[in-house]
Recover the amino acids of this structure.
């Protein structure tokens, strides 16, 4: 990965963007794409949209969601301990014995999720999890932290080897990064572009794909690519017969069926073959959803496709991807945009 | 049933249309509709519409969904066995021992869902005797190994059970996926009856063959936005409860061959329901009545909540054993449904609206 984009990715991954609290990440994203896009706007809930060739007839959206799962302060006890509720699909037992950052109005308060041999539980429920900020009582804790403050795990970006990186919440800041990079890498080929390319860094995917629904209504795309993470199944203990076969480092994945429009999946495969970009194919998701899930049946039908980066350990503090897959995803979508003809529409042939 | 109509029905049912892969069925439907409709067209995801009297108001949609449940290839192992995920609500325990068709890019591949011989089954430990879950099913296509299997079949290929239409009596028929190809059938058959009497018609009628109902009523959601109907009728299969093992106290009574079924409450607009009841009485068509479904919903759920609220109703054709390879229904009730719908549409007045009276 080139140095500039890598620096941008690192910044994005070390910035807290819990669903509903995305502005710090969106500011980074907006200032990055502003150098390359013709137009950059944000909407009422903080979705960010960057456009190349805004007046072209066919509107191709490349979407990644900037929000990450996390926690939010629910209650502060008289003893000064903090109870939380989940934002998105957090698995409570994995929170135990982790360091956390509480993002308060006055700045970051560091805490730990208490768990000793005396109270640790393999099946901990979220209300049994508590954060210790070493406050001597509730009064002191309430001076530092307030109900509603978002909380993230501390675990930041690290390279494990030359290609493979680990971080909390590649899901889906890597998708937002891909969308921005498509704009950057297309900006030099603007003269050859026949469609409008619209990168969206959407909010609130982890709490129900809400940001993308707003974008779909406002933009009315002709094609919508949801760039997200997909489970890599190349680790011990995962049953490939149940979950299919996907691996990190083997290229973006393309999904078939349901929301994945056949004309778009065909185009993705054709472009990948022509550009010699390896891709993996999987069946549509039966557990979980992406921004394509609500968007495809909105506003009369929006042709959608999910393009994913295989990720190990999704929704944990040690999400792992191969950065080459992220780069290849950008290359694939960039090349695809350049093949879209003026005024092209996508339709199932009956 | 008219010979041409029956041939169309047979052809529609024998064409595989798992959700997301409906185009072959939509072609059969369009070809039939084109012989009498003023306009036939389809949208981005393949929803297909046939219109009589375009431009008139109210716009009445008669909807059936063309998609059926199915399976999709998820994984091919090194021994050449194929593992699957469901498309829609599939009962995994009914699949072992079934023949299946895998719709591969190069053509149809016949497979069988592996089934443990009873001799071995009886000797298994108790915990292995449980009914299988979907990911535990393996499809055998007779491949020597994974490599051989992968030359014929790829991840993402849709699968249907083998179950073409057959007559059990001169009225009772069996096939896979009546749900809801007979709804799509009845929609367009109604349109044909209306087209024959178009002089009497004062509204616009749109027969709609929807995609992707079984994976979440999505096709209808697209069309309601595009069409903006003044009324929408979802034609569905009614789940019969007149076979052994079903308690009337829990499921009520809907009988095979007992006449089209209407539902009361929720999405079923009282004004439309009242018309069905009055029209059935006038035309001496037996009508079964049931409370609204508590479960998954039909395309009427998509229609009634969208674009400010579309008066909707469900009319269903009694069918036994739905979501299996041996769905059983009757030609008489398919025809009665079309006749009733046609009569209701022909009695709609110019510019009439459907409102709950407050």
């Amino acid at each position: 990965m080139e140095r500039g984009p890598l620096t941008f990715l690192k910044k994005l991954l070390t910035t807290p963007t819990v669903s509903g609290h995305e502005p710090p990440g969106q500011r980074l994203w907006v200032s990055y794409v502003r150098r390359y896009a013709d137009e950059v706007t944000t909407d009422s809930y903080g979705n960010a949209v960057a456009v190349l060739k805004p007046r072209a007839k066919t509107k191709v959206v490349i979407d990644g969601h900037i929000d990450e799962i996390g926690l939010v302060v629910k209650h502060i006890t008289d003893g000064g301990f903090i109870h939380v509720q989940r934002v998105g699909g957090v698995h409570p037992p994995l929170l135990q014995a982790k360091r956390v950052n509480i993002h308060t109005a006055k700045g970051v308060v560091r805490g730990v999720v208490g768990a000793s041999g005396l109270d640790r539980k393999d099946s901990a429920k979220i209300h049994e999890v508590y954060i210790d900020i070493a406050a001597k009582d509730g009064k002191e804790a309430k001076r530092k932290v307030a109900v509603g403050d978002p909380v993230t795990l501390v675990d930041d970006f690290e390279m494990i080897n030359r290609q493979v990186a680990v971080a909390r919440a590649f899901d889906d800041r890597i998708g937002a990064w891909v969308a921005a990079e498509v704009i950057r890498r297309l900006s030099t080929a603007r003269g050859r572009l026949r469609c409008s390319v619209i990168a969206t860094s959407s909010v609130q995917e982890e709490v129900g794909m809400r940001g993308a629904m707003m974008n779909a209504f406002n933009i009315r795309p002709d094609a919508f690519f949801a760039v997200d993470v997909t489970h890599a199944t190349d680790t011990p203990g995962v049953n490939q017969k149940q979950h299919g076969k996907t691996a990190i480092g083997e290229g973006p994945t393309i999904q078939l069926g349901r929301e994945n429009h056949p004309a778009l999946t065909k185009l993705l495969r054709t472009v990948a073959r022509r550009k010699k970009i390896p891709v993996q194919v999987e069946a549509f998701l039966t557990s979980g959803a992406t921004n394509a899930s609500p968007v495809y049946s909105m506003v009369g039908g929006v042709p959608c496709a999910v393009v994913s980066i295989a990720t190990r350990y999704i929704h944990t503090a040690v999400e792992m991807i191969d950065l080459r897959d992220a780069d290849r995803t950008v290359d694939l979508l960039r090349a695809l945009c350049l093949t879209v003809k003026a005024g092209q529409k996508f339709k199932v042939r009956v | 049933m008219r010979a041409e109509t029956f041939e169309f029905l047979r052809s529609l049912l024998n064409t595989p249309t798992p959700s997301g892969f409906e185009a072959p069925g939509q072609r059969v439907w369009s070809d039939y509709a084109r012989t009498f409709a003023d306009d036939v067209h389809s949208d981005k995801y393949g929803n297909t519409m046939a219109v009589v009297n375009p431009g008139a108001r109210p716009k009445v949609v008669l909807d059936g969904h063309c998609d059926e449940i199915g399976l999709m290839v998820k994984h091919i192992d090194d021994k050449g066995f194929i593992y699957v995920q469901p498309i829609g609500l599939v009962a995994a325990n009914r699949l072992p021992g079934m023949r299946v068709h895998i719709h591969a890019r190069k053509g149809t591949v016949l497979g069988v869902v592996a089934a443990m011989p009873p001799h071995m089954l009886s000797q298994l430990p108790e915990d292995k005797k449980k009914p299988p879950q979907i990911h535990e099913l393996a499809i055998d296509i007779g491949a020597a190994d994974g490599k051989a299997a992968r030359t014929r079949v790829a991840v993402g290929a849709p699968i249907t059970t083998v179950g073409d239409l057959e007559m059990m009596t001169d009225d009772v028929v069996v096939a896979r996926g009546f749900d809801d190809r007979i709804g799509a059938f009845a929609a367009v058959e109604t349109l044909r009856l209306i087209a024959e009497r178009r002089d009497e018609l004062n509204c616009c009628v749109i027969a709609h063959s929807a995609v992707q109902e079984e994976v979440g009523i999505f096709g209808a959601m697209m069309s309601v936005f595009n069409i903006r109907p003044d009324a929408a009728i979802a034609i569905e299969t009614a789940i019969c409860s007149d076979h052994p093992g079903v308690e009337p106290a829990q499921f009520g009574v809907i009988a095979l061959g007992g006449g089209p079924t209407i539902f009361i409450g929720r999405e079923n607009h009282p004004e439309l329901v009242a018309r069905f009841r009055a029209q059935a009485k006038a035309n001496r068509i037996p009508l079964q009545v049931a409370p609204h479904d508590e479960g998954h919903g039909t395309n009427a759920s998509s229609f009634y909540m969208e674009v400010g609220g579309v008066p909707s109703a469900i009319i269903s054709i009694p069918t036994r054993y739905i979501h299996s390879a041996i769905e059983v229904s009757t030609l008489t009730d398919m025809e009665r449904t079309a006749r009733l719908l046609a009569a209701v549409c022909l009695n709609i007045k110019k510019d009439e609206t459907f409102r709950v009276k407050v």
Summary: Chain A has two domains: 3-68+169-339, 70-153. Residues 70-153 of chain A form a domain with the Elongation Factor Tu (Ef-tu); domain 3 fold (CATH 2.40.30.40). The CA atoms of residues 226 and 290 of chain A lie 7 Å apart. Chain A has a mean pLDDT of 97.
